[in-house]
UniProtKB/TrEMBL annotation:
Highest taxon in the source lineage: Bacteria
Record-annotated membrane-spanning stretches: 76-96, 157-176, 182-200, 276-303
Topology within the bilayer: Multi-pass membrane protein
Annotated Pfam families: ABC_membrane (PF00664), ABC_tran (PF00005)
Sequence ranges assigned to domain ABC transmembrane type-1 in this UniProt record: 37-325
Residue ranges annotated for the ABC transporter domain, each copy included: 359-592
Coiled coil: none
SMART domains: AAA
UniProt xrefs under InterPro entries: AAA+_ATPase, ABC1_TM_dom, ABC1_TM_sf, ABC_transporter-like_ATP-bd, ABC_transporter-like_CS, P-loop_NTPase, Type_1_exporter
GO cellular component: plasma membrane
Descriptive protein name: Multidrug ABC transporter ATP-binding protein
Native source organism of the sequence: Enterococcus termitis
A molecular-function term among this protein's GO annotations: ABC-type oligopeptide transporter activity
Amino acid sequence: MSKGAPMGKGIKAKPKDLKGTMKRLLGYMKASRWLILLVAVVAIVGTLFQVLSPKILGNATTLIFAGVNAKTGIDFTKLAMILLTVALLYIGKAVADFVQQWLMTVVSQNTTKTMRNELKAKINELPSEYFDKHSNGNLMSIAINDMDNIATMLQQSLTQLLSSIILVIGVIWLMLTISWKLTLVAALIIPFSLLVMKLLTPKAQENVKKYLQVQGHLNGQIEEAYNGHTVIKSFNYEERSAQQFHAFNQKMYEAGWKSKFFGGSMMPAMIFLKNVVYVVICTVGAVEVAAGAILIGNLQAFLQYSSQFSQPVSQLSQIWSGILSIVASAERVFEVLDEEERNVYEQTFPNTPEDSAKVRFDHVQFGYGEELLMNDFSLAVAPQETIAIVGHTGAGKTTLVHLLQRFYDISGGSIKIDGIDSRNLSHQQLHQKIGMVLQETWLFSGTIYDNIKYGKPDATKEEVYAAAKAAFVDDFVRKLPDGYDTILNEETNNISQGQRQLITIARAFLANPEILILDEATSNVDTRTEMLIQKAMKQLLVGRTSFVVAHRLSTIYDADKIVVMDHGDVVESGNHQELLEADGVYSDIYNSQFLAEAA
Protein backbone atom coordinates (compact mmCIF):
# COMPACT_ATOMS: atom_id res chain seq x y z
CA MET A 1 0.00 0.00 0.00
CA SER A 2 1.28 3.44 -0.85
CA LYS A 3 2.44 5.75 1.87
CA GLY A 4 -0.39 7.16 3.87
CA ALA A 5 -3.01 5.13 2.04
CA PRO A 6 -6.13 4.67 4.12
CA MET A 7 -6.93 1.24 5.44
CA GLY A 8 -10.50 0.33 6.42
CA LYS A 9 -10.85 -1.58 9.69
CA GLY A 10 -12.86 -4.75 10.00
CA ILE A 11 -14.15 -4.82 6.43
CA LYS A 12 -15.77 -8.11 5.49
CA ALA A 13 -17.44 -9.31 2.34
CA LYS A 14 -21.12 -8.48 2.24
CA PRO A 15 -23.44 -11.47 2.48
CA LYS A 16 -24.69 -12.41 -0.97
CA ASP A 17 -26.73 -15.52 -0.24
CA LEU A 18 -28.71 -17.23 2.45
CA LYS A 19 -25.94 -19.69 3.29
CA GLY A 20 -23.32 -16.98 3.74
CA THR A 21 -25.58 -14.79 5.84
CA MET A 22 -26.66 -17.65 8.11
CA LYS A 23 -23.05 -18.80 8.51
CA ARG A 24 -22.04 -15.31 9.58
CA LEU A 25 -25.02 -15.01 11.91
CA LEU A 26 -24.19 -18.33 13.54
CA GLY A 27 -20.71 -16.95 14.17
CA TYR A 28 -22.28 -14.50 16.64
CA MET A 29 -23.75 -17.49 18.51
CA LYS A 30 -20.38 -19.11 19.25
CA ALA A 31 -20.28 -17.49 22.68
CA SER A 32 -23.47 -19.40 23.53
CA ARG A 33 -22.37 -22.72 22.01
CA TRP A 34 -22.56 -24.57 25.34
CA LEU A 35 -26.08 -23.32 25.92
CA ILE A 36 -27.01 -24.39 22.39
CA LEU A 37 -25.53 -27.82 23.10
CA LEU A 38 -27.63 -27.99 26.25
CA VAL A 39 -30.68 -26.99 24.21
CA ALA A 40 -29.95 -29.88 21.84
CA VAL A 41 -29.65 -32.33 24.75
CA VAL A 42 -32.92 -31.09 26.27
CA ALA A 43 -34.57 -31.31 22.84
CA ILE A 44 -33.39 -34.93 22.44
CA VAL A 45 -34.73 -35.85 25.88
CA GLY A 46 -38.06 -34.08 25.22
CA THR A 47 -38.39 -35.70 21.81
CA LEU A 48 -37.62 -39.10 23.30
CA PHE A 49 -40.49 -38.59 25.76
CA GLN A 50 -42.74 -37.52 22.88
CA VAL A 51 -42.00 -40.41 20.53
CA LEU A 52 -42.21 -43.09 23.22
CA SER A 53 -45.68 -41.98 24.34
CA PRO A 54 -47.67 -43.25 21.31
CA LYS A 55 -45.94 -46.64 21.34
CA ILE A 56 -46.66 -47.14 25.05
CA LEU A 57 -50.20 -45.79 24.66
CA GLY A 58 -50.69 -48.24 21.78
CA ASN A 59 -49.83 -51.05 24.19
CA ALA A 60 -52.79 -49.92 26.32
CA THR A 61 -55.10 -50.19 23.30
CA THR A 62 -53.73 -53.63 22.46
CA LEU A 63 -54.18 -54.72 26.11
CA ILE A 64 -57.83 -53.60 26.14
CA PHE A 65 -58.54 -55.14 22.71
CA ALA A 66 -56.92 -58.45 23.69
CA GLY A 67 -58.82 -58.62 26.99
CA VAL A 68 -62.14 -57.98 25.32
CA ASN A 69 -61.52 -60.52 22.53
CA ALA A 70 -60.30 -63.24 24.91
CA LYS A 71 -63.21 -62.51 27.27
CA THR A 72 -60.78 -62.79 30.17
CA GLY A 73 -61.24 -59.20 31.26
CA ILE A 74 -58.91 -56.22 31.23
CA ASP A 75 -55.83 -56.14 33.45
CA PHE A 76 -56.51 -52.73 35.01
CA THR A 77 -53.34 -52.81 37.15
CA LYS A 78 -51.17 -53.16 34.07
CA LEU A 79 -53.33 -50.61 32.25
CA ALA A 80 -52.91 -48.11 35.09
CA MET A 81 -49.12 -48.54 35.00
CA ILE A 82 -49.12 -47.90 31.24
CA LEU A 83 -51.26 -44.77 31.60
CA LEU A 84 -49.12 -43.51 34.53
CA THR A 85 -46.00 -43.98 32.43
CA VAL A 86 -47.57 -42.03 29.55
CA ALA A 87 -48.61 -39.23 31.93
CA LEU A 88 -45.05 -38.97 33.27
CA LEU A 89 -43.73 -38.82 29.70
CA TYR A 90 -46.16 -35.99 28.86
CA ILE A 91 -45.07 -34.07 31.97
CA GLY A 92 -41.41 -34.63 31.09
CA LYS A 93 -42.05 -33.36 27.57
CA ALA A 94 -43.72 -30.19 28.94
CA VAL A 95 -40.78 -29.51 31.28
CA ALA A 96 -38.28 -30.09 28.47
CA ASP A 97 -40.16 -27.65 26.21
CA PHE A 98 -40.13 -25.00 28.94
CA VAL A 99 -36.40 -25.39 29.58
CA GLN A 100 -35.68 -25.39 25.84
CA GLN A 101 -37.62 -22.15 25.28
CA TRP A 102 -35.93 -20.51 28.27
CA LEU A 103 -32.44 -21.45 27.09
CA MET A 104 -33.11 -20.31 23.52
CA THR A 105 -34.40 -16.99 24.82
CA VAL A 106 -31.07 -16.49 26.59
CA VAL A 107 -29.16 -17.52 23.44
CA SER A 108 -31.15 -15.22 21.12
CA GLN A 109 -30.87 -12.22 23.46
CA ASN A 110 -27.13 -12.77 23.98
CA THR A 111 -26.65 -12.98 20.23
CA THR A 112 -28.52 -9.77 19.45
CA LYS A 113 -26.87 -8.01 22.40
CA THR A 114 -23.49 -8.76 20.84
CA MET A 115 -24.71 -7.63 17.41
CA ARG A 116 -26.28 -4.49 18.85
CA ASN A 117 -23.05 -3.56 20.65
CA GLU A 118 -21.07 -4.11 17.47
CA LEU A 119 -23.57 -2.06 15.46
CA LYS A 120 -23.38 0.83 17.94
CA ALA A 121 -19.57 0.73 17.90
CA LYS A 122 -19.65 0.60 14.10
CA ILE A 123 -21.94 3.63 13.86
CA ASN A 124 -19.49 5.57 16.04
CA GLU A 125 -16.71 4.75 13.57
CA LEU A 126 -18.58 5.52 10.35
CA PRO A 127 -17.46 8.59 8.40
CA SER A 128 -19.68 11.64 8.01
CA GLU A 129 -20.26 10.74 4.36
CA TYR A 130 -22.29 7.72 5.44
CA PHE A 131 -24.77 9.81 7.43
CA ASP A 132 -25.03 12.25 4.52
CA LYS A 133 -26.40 9.41 2.37
CA HIS A 134 -28.55 7.44 4.85
CA SER A 135 -31.56 8.61 6.80
CA ASN A 136 -31.66 8.46 10.58
CA GLY A 137 -35.02 6.71 10.45
CA ASN A 138 -33.63 3.82 8.41
CA LEU A 139 -30.67 3.41 10.77
CA MET A 140 -33.04 3.41 13.75
CA SER A 141 -35.17 0.78 12.03
CA ILE A 142 -32.10 -1.43 11.56
CA ALA A 143 -30.91 -0.94 15.14
CA ILE A 144 -34.33 -1.57 16.70
CA ASN A 145 -36.81 -3.34 14.39
CA ASP A 146 -34.36 -5.62 12.60
CA MET A 147 -32.54 -6.53 15.80
CA ASP A 148 -35.83 -7.37 17.54
CA ASN A 149 -36.88 -9.44 14.53
CA ILE A 150 -33.61 -11.41 14.65
CA ALA A 151 -34.02 -12.07 18.39
CA THR A 152 -37.64 -13.18 18.06
CA MET A 153 -37.12 -15.36 15.01
CA LEU A 154 -33.93 -16.93 16.36
CA GLN A 155 -35.78 -18.01 19.47
CA GLN A 156 -38.78 -19.38 17.57
CA SER A 157 -37.26 -20.76 14.39
CA LEU A 158 -34.10 -22.37 15.80
CA THR A 159 -36.05 -23.98 18.63
CA GLN A 160 -38.56 -25.41 16.16
CA LEU A 161 -35.79 -26.45 13.78
CA LEU A 162 -33.85 -28.36 16.45
CA SER A 163 -36.97 -30.06 17.81
CA SER A 164 -38.26 -30.89 14.34
CA ILE A 165 -35.03 -32.51 13.17
CA ILE A 166 -34.75 -34.66 16.29
CA LEU A 167 -38.47 -35.49 16.20
CA VAL A 168 -38.38 -36.60 12.57
CA ILE A 169 -35.39 -38.88 13.22
CA GLY A 170 -37.01 -40.43 16.28
CA VAL A 171 -40.41 -40.87 14.68
CA ILE A 172 -39.00 -42.47 11.50
CA TRP A 173 -37.06 -44.93 13.62
CA LEU A 174 -40.16 -45.98 15.60
CA MET A 175 -42.38 -46.06 12.51
CA LEU A 176 -39.94 -48.45 10.86
CA THR A 177 -40.19 -50.74 13.89
CA ILE A 178 -43.95 -50.97 13.23
CA SER A 179 -44.20 -51.14 9.39
CA TRP A 180 -41.77 -50.20 6.65
CA LYS A 181 -44.63 -50.11 4.13
CA LEU A 182 -46.62 -47.51 6.08
CA THR A 183 -43.40 -45.56 6.67
CA LEU A 184 -42.87 -45.25 2.91
CA VAL A 185 -46.46 -44.00 2.55
CA ALA A 186 -45.89 -41.40 5.30
CA ALA A 187 -42.66 -40.26 3.61
CA LEU A 188 -44.63 -39.24 0.49
CA ILE A 189 -45.27 -35.87 2.15
CA ILE A 190 -41.59 -34.92 1.97
CA PRO A 191 -41.07 -34.47 -1.84
CA PHE A 192 -44.42 -32.69 -2.21
CA SER A 193 -43.56 -30.36 0.69
CA LEU A 194 -40.22 -29.50 -0.88
CA LEU A 195 -41.98 -28.73 -4.17
CA VAL A 196 -44.40 -26.34 -2.41
CA MET A 197 -41.52 -24.59 -0.69
CA LYS A 198 -39.57 -24.23 -3.94
CA LEU A 199 -42.56 -22.57 -5.61
CA LEU A 200 -43.46 -20.15 -2.79
CA THR A 201 -40.11 -19.35 -1.08
CA PRO A 202 -38.62 -16.96 -3.72
CA LYS A 203 -41.70 -14.74 -3.67
CA ALA A 204 -41.83 -14.73 0.12
CA GLN A 205 -38.12 -13.92 0.43
CA GLU A 206 -38.31 -11.09 -2.10
CA ASN A 207 -41.24 -9.41 -0.39
CA VAL A 208 -39.89 -9.84 3.15
CA LYS A 209 -36.74 -7.98 2.12
CA LYS A 210 -38.75 -5.28 0.34
CA TYR A 211 -41.03 -4.90 3.39
CA LEU A 212 -38.10 -4.26 5.74
CA GLN A 213 -36.52 -1.76 3.33
CA VAL A 214 -39.76 0.21 2.94
CA GLN A 215 -40.25 0.09 6.71
CA GLY A 216 -36.91 1.86 7.12
CA HIS A 217 -37.88 4.53 4.58
CA LEU A 218 -41.24 5.01 6.28
CA ASN A 219 -39.56 5.47 9.67
CA GLY A 220 -37.27 8.07 8.11
CA GLN A 221 -40.22 9.95 6.58
CA ILE A 222 -42.11 9.94 9.89
CA GLU A 223 -39.06 11.19 11.80
CA GLU A 224 -38.45 14.01 9.30
CA ALA A 225 -42.11 15.00 9.32
CA TYR A 226 -42.18 15.03 13.12
CA ASN A 227 -38.98 17.05 13.50
CA GLY A 228 -40.02 19.48 10.79
CA HIS A 229 -43.71 19.76 11.59
CA THR A 230 -43.43 23.54 12.09
CA VAL A 231 -41.89 24.01 8.65
CA ILE A 232 -44.47 21.67 7.12
CA LYS A 233 -47.32 23.71 8.54
CA SER A 234 -45.67 27.02 7.64
CA PHE A 235 -45.44 26.08 3.96
CA ASN A 236 -48.81 24.30 3.80
CA TYR A 237 -47.01 21.05 3.06
CA GLU A 238 -49.31 18.86 5.16
CA GLU A 239 -51.09 17.31 2.17
CA ARG A 240 -47.90 16.52 0.24
CA SER A 241 -46.29 15.15 3.41
CA ALA A 242 -49.34 12.95 3.93
CA GLN A 243 -49.11 11.82 0.30
CA GLN A 244 -45.48 10.80 0.81
CA PHE A 245 -46.51 8.88 3.91
CA HIS A 246 -49.38 7.16 2.08
CA ALA A 247 -47.05 6.24 -0.80
CA PHE A 248 -44.57 4.53 1.55
CA ASN A 249 -47.43 3.03 3.54
CA GLN A 250 -48.97 1.60 0.36
CA LYS A 251 -45.64 0.03 -0.68
CA MET A 252 -45.27 -1.40 2.81
CA TYR A 253 -48.82 -2.78 2.62
CA GLU A 254 -48.23 -4.42 -0.75
CA ALA A 255 -44.92 -5.97 0.27
CA GLY A 256 -46.39 -6.97 3.63
CA TRP A 257 -49.44 -8.83 2.38
CA LYS A 258 -47.47 -10.54 -0.38
CA SER A 259 -44.79 -11.72 2.04
CA LYS A 260 -47.45 -12.95 4.49
CA PHE A 261 -49.52 -14.51 1.69
CA PHE A 262 -46.72 -16.47 0.05
CA GLY A 263 -45.17 -17.37 3.40
CA GLY A 264 -48.52 -18.18 4.98
CA SER A 265 -49.75 -20.19 1.99
CA MET A 266 -47.16 -22.85 2.73
CA MET A 267 -48.89 -23.99 5.92
CA PRO A 268 -52.37 -24.67 4.39
CA ALA A 269 -50.69 -26.50 1.50
CA MET A 270 -48.72 -28.63 3.97
CA ILE A 271 -51.85 -29.38 6.02
CA PHE A 272 -53.68 -30.50 2.86
CA LEU A 273 -50.81 -32.84 1.98
CA LYS A 274 -50.76 -34.11 5.56
CA ASN A 275 -54.49 -34.96 5.45
CA VAL A 276 -54.18 -36.74 2.10
CA VAL A 277 -51.28 -38.86 3.37
CA TYR A 278 -53.17 -39.55 6.61
CA VAL A 279 -56.15 -40.96 4.66
CA VAL A 280 -53.85 -43.18 2.61
CA ILE A 281 -52.14 -44.47 5.78
CA CYS A 282 -55.52 -45.26 7.38
CA THR A 283 -56.59 -47.20 4.30
CA VAL A 284 -53.39 -49.20 3.95
CA GLY A 285 -53.15 -49.71 7.74
CA ALA A 286 -56.70 -51.06 7.95
CA VAL A 287 -55.85 -53.65 5.31
CA GLU A 288 -52.69 -54.60 7.22
CA VAL A 289 -54.64 -55.05 10.49
CA ALA A 290 -57.29 -57.15 8.77
CA ALA A 291 -54.53 -59.34 7.34
CA GLY A 292 -53.00 -59.72 10.82
CA ALA A 293 -49.72 -58.06 9.77
CA ILE A 294 -50.07 -55.25 12.33
CA LEU A 295 -51.59 -55.12 15.81
CA ILE A 296 -54.40 -52.60 16.19
CA GLY A 297 -52.52 -50.85 18.98
CA ASN A 298 -49.50 -50.47 16.74
CA LEU A 299 -51.71 -48.98 14.00
CA GLN A 300 -53.01 -46.46 16.52
CA ALA A 301 -49.44 -45.63 17.50
CA PHE A 302 -48.43 -45.34 13.85
CA LEU A 303 -51.25 -42.92 13.13
CA GLN A 304 -50.04 -40.76 16.00
CA TYR A 305 -46.49 -41.03 14.68
CA SER A 306 -47.65 -40.01 11.22
CA SER A 307 -49.18 -36.88 12.74
CA GLN A 308 -45.98 -36.21 14.66
CA PHE A 309 -43.97 -36.82 11.50
CA SER A 310 -46.09 -34.54 9.34
CA GLN A 311 -46.20 -31.83 12.00
CA PRO A 312 -42.52 -30.77 11.68
CA VAL A 313 -42.74 -31.20 7.91
CA SER A 314 -45.77 -28.92 7.89
CA GLN A 315 -44.00 -26.51 10.24
CA LEU A 316 -41.04 -26.50 7.90
CA SER A 317 -42.76 -23.76 5.88
CA GLN A 318 -43.20 -21.65 9.02
CA ILE A 319 -39.62 -22.33 10.10
CA TRP A 320 -38.36 -21.47 6.62
CA SER A 321 -40.39 -18.25 6.58
CA GLY A 322 -38.81 -17.33 9.94
CA ILE A 323 -35.33 -18.07 8.61
CA LEU A 324 -35.98 -15.88 5.57
CA SER A 325 -37.08 -13.09 7.89
CA ILE A 326 -33.90 -13.53 9.97
CA VAL A 327 -31.75 -13.40 6.83
CA ALA A 328 -33.49 -10.27 5.52
CA SER A 329 -32.92 -8.45 8.82
CA ALA A 330 -29.39 -9.79 9.23
CA GLU A 331 -28.43 -8.60 5.75
CA ARG A 332 -29.54 -5.08 6.61
CA VAL A 333 -27.49 -5.17 9.82
CA PHE A 334 -24.46 -6.62 8.02
CA GLU A 335 -24.69 -3.94 5.33
CA VAL A 336 -24.03 -1.34 8.04
CA LEU A 337 -21.34 -3.46 9.70
CA ASP A 338 -19.58 -3.88 6.35
CA GLU A 339 -19.49 -0.17 5.58
CA GLU A 340 -16.01 1.29 5.34
CA GLU A 341 -15.00 3.02 8.53
CA ARG A 342 -13.13 6.27 9.02
CA ASN A 343 -9.71 5.95 7.48
CA VAL A 344 -6.88 4.51 9.54
CA TYR A 345 -3.49 5.18 8.01
CA GLU A 346 -0.83 2.50 7.91
CA GLN A 347 2.13 4.86 7.86
CA THR A 348 2.91 8.02 9.75
CA PHE A 349 2.80 11.33 7.89
CA PRO A 350 5.73 13.75 8.26
CA ASN A 351 5.56 15.93 11.37
CA THR A 352 7.30 19.27 11.87
CA PRO A 353 7.86 19.67 15.63
CA GLU A 354 9.68 22.96 15.09
CA ASP A 355 6.58 24.55 13.53
CA SER A 356 5.64 27.68 15.47
CA ALA A 357 1.99 27.60 14.28
CA LYS A 358 -0.67 26.08 16.50
CA VAL A 359 -2.69 25.02 13.45
CA ARG A 360 -1.38 24.92 9.90
CA PHE A 361 -3.36 24.16 6.74
CA ASP A 362 -0.69 23.35 4.17
CA HIS A 363 -1.82 23.22 0.51
CA VAL A 364 -5.02 21.40 1.47
CA GLN A 365 -7.17 19.90 -1.27
CA PHE A 366 -10.68 18.61 -0.66
CA GLY A 367 -13.95 17.87 -2.44
CA TYR A 368 -17.18 16.14 -1.43
CA GLY A 369 -17.18 14.43 -4.80
CA GLU A 370 -14.81 14.25 -7.72
CA GLU A 371 -14.81 18.04 -8.12
CA LEU A 372 -12.52 19.81 -5.64
CA LEU A 373 -13.95 22.53 -3.41
CA MET A 374 -10.52 23.45 -2.04
CA ASN A 375 -7.74 23.40 -4.59
CA ASP A 376 -4.76 24.79 -2.66
CA PHE A 377 -5.80 26.10 0.75
CA SER A 378 -3.07 27.30 3.11
CA LEU A 379 -3.43 29.05 6.48
CA ALA A 380 -1.19 29.36 9.53
CA VAL A 381 -2.75 30.13 12.92
CA ALA A 382 -0.51 31.19 15.81
CA PRO A 383 -1.08 29.92 19.38
CA GLN A 384 -3.88 31.78 21.26
CA GLU A 385 -4.86 33.57 18.06
CA THR A 386 -8.51 34.17 17.24
CA ILE A 387 -9.28 33.61 13.57
CA ALA A 388 -12.60 34.75 12.15
CA ILE A 389 -13.75 33.02 8.98
CA VAL A 390 -16.21 34.87 6.79
CA GLY A 391 -17.49 34.55 3.27
CA HIS A 392 -20.60 34.15 1.19
CA THR A 393 -22.73 31.01 1.50
CA GLY A 394 -20.90 28.02 0.01
CA ALA A 395 -17.48 29.63 0.34
CA GLY A 396 -16.20 26.69 2.44
CA LYS A 397 -16.30 28.09 5.98
CA THR A 398 -17.96 25.13 7.66
CA THR A 399 -16.00 22.72 5.48
CA LEU A 400 -12.80 24.22 6.88
CA VAL A 401 -13.69 23.43 10.50
CA HIS A 402 -15.00 19.98 9.54
CA LEU A 403 -11.65 19.19 7.97
CA LEU A 404 -9.87 20.42 11.09
CA GLN A 405 -11.82 17.86 13.13
CA ARG A 406 -11.39 15.14 10.49
CA PHE A 407 -15.10 14.70 9.95
CA TYR A 408 -13.94 14.36 6.35
CA ASP A 409 -10.49 13.36 5.12
CA ILE A 410 -8.54 15.70 2.90
CA SER A 411 -7.60 14.72 -0.66
CA GLY A 412 -4.18 16.36 -0.58
CA GLY A 413 -1.86 18.48 1.54
CA SER A 414 -1.87 18.33 5.33
CA ILE A 415 -3.43 19.81 8.47
CA LYS A 416 -1.08 20.01 11.43
CA ILE A 417 -1.65 20.83 15.09
CA ASP A 418 1.48 21.76 17.02
CA GLY A 419 3.44 20.42 14.07
CA ILE A 420 1.78 16.98 14.22
CA ASP A 421 -0.21 15.85 11.20
CA SER A 422 -3.81 15.32 12.37
CA ARG A 423 -3.87 11.98 10.53
CA ASN A 424 -1.22 10.71 12.92
CA LEU A 425 -3.61 11.29 15.84
CA SER A 426 -6.49 9.03 16.78
CA HIS A 427 -9.92 10.64 16.61
CA GLN A 428 -10.07 10.59 20.40
CA GLN A 429 -6.72 12.35 20.72
CA LEU A 430 -7.71 14.91 18.11
CA HIS A 431 -11.10 15.73 19.62
CA GLN A 432 -9.61 16.11 23.10
CA LYS A 433 -7.75 19.10 21.70
CA ILE A 434 -10.76 20.66 19.98
CA GLY A 435 -14.06 21.94 21.31
CA MET A 436 -16.91 22.99 19.06
CA VAL A 437 -20.18 24.91 19.36
CA LEU A 438 -22.45 24.27 16.41
CA GLN A 439 -25.03 26.49 14.80
CA GLU A 440 -27.64 23.82 15.51
CA THR A 441 -27.71 23.16 19.24
CA TRP A 442 -27.69 19.56 20.49
CA LEU A 443 -28.88 18.80 23.99
CA PHE A 444 -29.99 15.40 25.24
CA SER A 445 -32.96 14.58 27.44
CA GLY A 446 -31.74 15.14 30.97
CA THR A 447 -30.95 17.91 33.43
CA ILE A 448 -29.25 21.16 32.51
CA TYR A 449 -26.46 20.21 34.90
CA ASP A 450 -25.81 16.91 33.09
CA ASN A 451 -25.89 18.63 29.69
CA ILE A 452 -23.15 21.04 30.77
CA LYS A 453 -21.14 18.28 32.46
CA TYR A 454 -21.20 16.36 29.16
CA GLY A 455 -18.17 18.44 28.16
CA LYS A 456 -16.12 16.96 31.02
CA PRO A 457 -17.66 13.87 32.69
CA ASP A 458 -15.30 14.00 35.67
CA ALA A 459 -15.85 17.71 36.36
CA THR A 460 -16.66 18.86 39.89
CA LYS A 461 -19.78 20.85 40.74
CA GLU A 462 -17.65 23.94 41.20
CA GLU A 463 -16.22 23.57 37.69
CA VAL A 464 -19.68 23.12 36.18
CA TYR A 465 -21.04 26.16 37.99
CA ALA A 466 -17.98 28.22 37.01
CA ALA A 467 -18.43 27.37 33.33
CA ALA A 468 -22.15 28.16 33.58
CA LYS A 469 -21.43 31.54 35.15
CA ALA A 470 -18.79 32.38 32.58
CA ALA A 471 -21.24 31.58 29.74
CA PHE A 472 -24.05 33.54 31.46
CA VAL A 473 -26.08 30.36 31.96
CA ASP A 474 -26.15 30.53 35.75
CA ASP A 475 -28.31 33.66 35.82
CA PHE A 476 -31.32 32.26 33.94
CA VAL A 477 -30.96 28.70 35.28
CA ARG A 478 -31.32 29.79 38.90
CA LYS A 479 -34.60 31.50 38.01
CA LEU A 480 -36.06 28.17 36.87
CA PRO A 481 -38.17 26.27 39.46
CA ASP A 482 -35.75 23.31 39.56
CA GLY A 483 -32.58 25.23 38.73
CA TYR A 484 -29.79 23.03 37.40
CA ASP A 485 -32.02 19.98 37.96
CA THR A 486 -34.49 21.22 35.33
CA ILE A 487 -35.21 18.35 32.94
CA LEU A 488 -34.86 19.24 29.27
CA ASN A 489 -37.43 17.39 27.18
CA GLU A 490 -36.71 15.62 23.90
CA GLU A 491 -37.17 18.75 21.83
CA THR A 492 -35.64 21.02 24.53
CA ASN A 493 -38.47 23.47 23.84
CA ASN A 494 -38.96 24.27 27.52
CA ILE A 495 -36.12 26.81 27.25
CA SER A 496 -35.40 29.36 24.53
CA GLN A 497 -33.10 28.90 21.55
CA GLY A 498 -30.65 31.44 22.97
CA GLN A 499 -30.57 29.65 26.32
CA ARG A 500 -29.91 26.33 24.58
CA GLN A 501 -26.99 27.88 22.72
CA LEU A 502 -25.54 29.31 25.94
CA ILE A 503 -25.66 25.84 27.53
CA THR A 504 -23.72 24.35 24.60
CA ILE A 505 -21.14 27.13 24.93
CA ALA A 506 -20.83 26.44 28.67
CA ARG A 507 -20.31 22.78 27.83
CA ALA A 508 -17.48 23.62 25.43
CA PHE A 509 -15.86 25.93 27.96
CA LEU A 510 -16.02 23.25 30.66
CA ALA A 511 -14.13 20.89 28.34
CA ASN A 512 -11.34 23.50 28.28
CA PRO A 513 -9.98 22.54 24.84
CA GLU A 514 -6.79 23.91 23.35
CA ILE A 515 -8.67 24.88 20.19
CA LEU A 516 -12.22 26.23 20.19
CA ILE A 517 -14.51 26.39 17.16
CA LEU A 518 -17.66 28.51 17.12
CA ASP A 519 -19.56 27.67 13.95
CA GLU A 520 -22.21 30.38 13.53
CA ALA A 521 -22.65 30.16 17.31
CA THR A 522 -24.58 33.44 17.52
CA SER A 523 -26.73 33.10 14.41
CA ASN A 524 -29.76 31.79 16.32
CA VAL A 525 -29.75 34.18 19.27
CA ASP A 526 -31.14 37.63 19.85
CA THR A 527 -29.04 40.78 20.09
CA ARG A 528 -28.90 40.81 23.90
CA THR A 529 -27.80 37.15 24.05
CA GLU A 530 -25.28 37.85 21.30
CA MET A 531 -23.80 40.59 23.44
CA LEU A 532 -23.57 38.19 26.39
CA ILE A 533 -21.73 35.65 24.23
CA GLN A 534 -19.33 38.30 22.94
CA LYS A 535 -18.63 39.43 26.49
CA ALA A 536 -18.08 35.84 27.63
CA MET A 537 -15.77 35.12 24.71
CA LYS A 538 -13.41 37.94 25.66
CA GLN A 539 -12.60 36.28 28.97
CA LEU A 540 -13.09 32.63 28.05
CA LEU A 541 -11.12 32.58 24.78
CA VAL A 542 -8.04 33.87 26.53
CA GLY A 543 -5.29 31.28 26.21
CA ARG A 544 -7.05 29.35 23.44
CA THR A 545 -6.62 29.20 19.71
CA SER A 546 -10.06 29.82 18.30
CA PHE A 547 -11.90 29.74 14.99
CA VAL A 548 -15.07 31.79 14.72
CA VAL A 549 -17.35 31.21 11.73
CA ALA A 550 -19.92 33.99 11.49
CA HIS A 551 -22.30 35.70 9.13
CA ARG A 552 -22.81 38.60 11.54
CA LEU A 553 -19.63 40.59 11.16
CA SER A 554 -20.40 42.47 14.37
CA THR A 555 -19.31 39.37 16.31
CA ILE A 556 -15.78 39.26 14.90
CA TYR A 557 -14.57 42.88 14.84
CA ASP A 558 -12.04 42.12 17.61
CA ALA A 559 -10.62 38.97 15.99
CA ASP A 560 -6.81 38.87 15.64
CA LYS A 561 -7.19 37.95 12.00
CA ILE A 562 -10.15 37.77 9.66
CA VAL A 563 -9.90 35.25 6.84
CA VAL A 564 -12.19 35.82 3.89
CA MET A 565 -12.99 32.67 1.89
CA ASP A 566 -14.44 32.31 -1.56
CA HIS A 567 -14.88 29.01 -3.45
CA GLY A 568 -12.71 27.16 -0.95
CA ASP A 569 -9.72 29.51 -1.03
CA VAL A 570 -8.50 32.45 1.06
CA VAL A 571 -8.99 35.62 -0.97
CA GLU A 572 -8.32 38.17 1.78
CA SER A 573 -6.94 38.25 5.30
CA GLY A 574 -6.27 40.96 7.87
CA ASN A 575 -8.05 42.77 10.68
CA HIS A 576 -11.40 44.50 10.34
CA GLN A 577 -10.04 47.94 9.48
CA GLU A 578 -7.47 46.66 6.99
CA LEU A 579 -10.07 44.63 5.10
CA LEU A 580 -12.48 47.56 4.94
CA GLU A 581 -9.76 49.75 3.48
CA ALA A 582 -8.90 47.04 0.93
CA ASP A 583 -12.43 47.47 -0.50
CA GLY A 584 -12.67 43.81 -1.51
CA VAL A 585 -14.96 40.91 -0.72
CA TYR A 586 -15.04 41.64 3.01
CA SER A 587 -15.96 45.26 2.38
CA ASP A 588 -18.73 44.12 0.06
CA ILE A 589 -20.15 41.75 2.72
CA TYR A 590 -19.85 44.43 5.42
CA ASN A 591 -21.55 47.10 3.36
CA SER A 592 -24.38 44.77 2.35
CA GLN A 593 -25.05 43.96 6.01
CA PHE A 594 -24.77 47.61 7.05
CA LEU A 595 -27.21 48.71 4.36
CA ALA A 596 -29.60 45.89 5.26
CA GLU A 597 -29.55 46.87 8.94
CA ALA A 598 -29.97 50.54 8.08
CA ALA A 599 -32.97 49.75 5.89
